[in-house]
Amino acid sequence: MERLRLAVSHHTALPLPTPHNHLRRRHLQLQPFPNSLSLSLPISPQLSPAPRRHLPPLLASASAAQAASPSPKPTPAPAPAVGGGAKPIPLLASLAVGLAVHFLAPRPPEVTPQAWQLLSIFLSTIAGLVLGPLPVGAWAFLGLTATVATRTLPFTAAFGAFTNEVIWLIVISFFFARGFVKTGLGDRVATCFVKWLGRSTLGLSYGLAISEACIAPAMPSTTARAGGVFLPIVKSLSLSAGSKPNDPSARKLGSYLVQSQLQASGNSSALFLTAAAQNLLCLKLAEEIGVKIANPWISWFKVASLPAIISLLATPYLLYKIFPPEIKDTPDAPAIAAQKLKNMGPVTRNEWVMVATMILAVSLWIFGDTIGVSSVVAAMIGLSILLLLGVLNWEDCLNEKSAWDTLAWFAILVGMAGQLTNLGIVSWMSNCVAKVLQSFSLSWPAAFGVLQASYFFIHYLFASQTAHVGALYSAFLAMHLAAGVPAVLSALALTYNSNLFGALTHYSSGQSAVYYGAGYVDLPDVFKLGFTTAAINAVIWGVVGTFWWKFLGLY
């Protein structure tokens, strides 16, 4: 097997691609040893480099693989304009949606003029998230401005969600993810699993999937796990086996590993409450409608555990059969992983601090209700420890632009959705849908299936899991309740679906954009495998969940 040898004088965290941002990059020139290659390593200006240290030559490391690969395919997802103002056609289409509702659609007598006006602004905002006339945060701010300027909402009500605890918990989760990447802890954990299980392609896939499930509860960003930890490892292993992106050799190994990791990540995120940002938001929205889940961390894990673990373990094998790699055995992978661990050296002080802090944070998330510590306070304590001990600095936090962007547009969407609930729009919509379902004489299990499938496949219109949740979760939960579906079952099933639909397309989530951008999977295969795996997950979660949730007493 051909190997690359590099001398790296400066180690830096890998940039995390997102479906809405295209990062500007500068390059660091690596000086070659004899008989080696001279490569340019892309460095994101958003991530501060780790302290300088001299490293020995590396064997096809993750960073080298990131640098050596050809330029990734552009993601043709609905992309907001970076400059030059709004895109005219998406702008007009987005505005037309709200104007049509406000001026052309008849207002039901049970809906107030204020509520109808807010609904029209909200629908224009959601249309803009799908069509992308401006970046997400900018378009959401325009929607917020419209609610205040038209006196639909007072200033305090419009900005009320900026004090929402769950939104700040999501923001802090971005900083935790940066800590995993900056210290190299996530990379070390994943490499250990490759060393233990990587003698075959299937074992390699299981090692990566299980390692993600292990770090998921303490790294609450699926996109960060994909871009900062697992994709660099996948690319390194693929290139060492002669599997190159944007090349027929991609099917040797890289295509399978990329798809397997992407499809398994949805189950890892669904397994733990703190494994993904949208999970926390779903429970907050459910609480606003009156569905409160006692001891949420443990209840979440207990309900999700059996179907999520079975689906997680089934995914690599099933993809191995329907999308098989050309290389079946990878006998050199454990040796490469062992060499990489050797080059990384012993566990550093910052990695130990990161481990201890995450154990503390997860413990407080699990037992916080018992001792009176909320989830956001537990996260604040963890972040404070990382800042005090120098694992992160304030510049790291300021440079985490995705966190601050999420704070802005997420708070706006959640605020609008909350006001729609308060003004009676959500209950009106749910009652209308319930009447339609009743006209077909559907039992609540049948209504449950129809609503869950509708919620899932509507995601083809969204380029963000959190945007989908902010736009539709409350309405669909209210529809479930109006149709007679048990409350806790409705709330949790919708939330689990909010993780599973993240792998439907190349634009359906941040992690999908990351993996597709690697250039190992063609677009037709992305759609085919996304739909096929979604059907497999639906069968597993449906069959296993039916018996497991009955056993737990959810219905």
TrEMBL record:
Domain of life of the native organism: Eukaryota
Q: Where is this region: Disordered?
A: 61-82
What cellular-component terms does GO give this entry? chloroplast inner membrane
Compartments, record wording: Plastid, Chloroplast inner membrane
Which keywords are on file for this protein? Membrane, Plastid, Plastid inner membrane, Transmembrane, Transmembrane helix
PANTHER family from the entry? DICARBOXYLATE TRANSPORTER 2.1, CHLOROPLASTIC
Recorded family membership: Belongs to the SLC13A/DASS transporter (TC 2.A.47) family. DIT1 subfamily.
Name of this protein: Citrate transporter-like domain-containing protein
- The species is Oryza meyeriana var. granulata
Its organism's taxonomic lineage begins at: Eukaryota, Viridiplantae, Streptophyta, Embryophyta, Tracheophyta
